[in-house]
Design goal:
With 179 residues, the chain is α+β, with helices and mostly antiparallel strands. 39% of the residues lie in helices and 13% in strands. α2 (35-79) runs antiparallel to α3. It starts with 6 loop residues before the first helix and ends in a 17-residue tail after the last strand.
């Protein structure tokens, strides 16, 4: 065996078999002792920063999805022509509270885009309604870091629906002239 391998390799194999020194690949002992701890100390802040960023962006996406669903539900209620503006705002607020979103600084607006100022409960058939909700992200963030979002970051969602209020038809129908 010694004729096939270099001398220092045979010596290392023999020492390892006898329980001798813990040699590294290059034959030096203890040369890289503590290198893993130093590498961890250098890489750990970067990994933690990336983890916090993923966490923050995940919360932002989660809040955006819940807010989208809330204004969708508010738009659906506005389209039904059964609720007034205050009840639609309450519907959006309750939806967010159900999913654990704080609503202290929530702003909900219901706008008739076709006939300005007309309440959804008395809207004309096919009036367009826009329900918009805005909430500051600082109210819903989980981490206290400000690396990824500022204090002025808002989560906003809008939904546009058409009113399905019943269209009134005349009691008597007259045929056009010539028929």
């Amino acid at each position: 065996m010694s004729a096939l391998l270099p001398r220092n390799t045979v010596t290392r194999v023999a020492q390892t078999m006898r329980g001798g020194c813990r040699c590294t690949r290059n034959g030096r002992t203890g040369a890289r002792r503590g290198a893993a701890a130093v590498e961890l100390a250098v890489v750990l802040p970067l990994l933690l920063t990336m983890l916090a960023g993923i966490w923050e962006v995940g919360r932002l996406a989660d809040t955006q999805q819940v807010l989208d669903n809330a204004v969708h539900e508010g738009g659906r209620q506005a389209a039904g022509a059964q609720l007034n503006t205050a009840a639609i705002k309450q519907c959006v607020t309750q939806y967010l509270q159900t999913y654990g979103i704080p609503t202290a600084n929530l702003s909900v607006t219901v706008t008739n885009l076709t006939s300005a100022g007309v309440d959804p409960s008395v809207a004309n058939h096919l009036d367009r309604f826009q329900v918009t909700a805005v909430i500051p992200f600082k109210d819903v963030r989980w981490s206290t870091t400000r690396f990824f979002t500022s204090t002025s970051t808002n989560v906003t969602s809008s939904s546009v629906w058409y009113s399905t209020n019943q269209q009134s038809y005349p009691a008597t129908i007259t045929a056009p002239a010539g028929y």
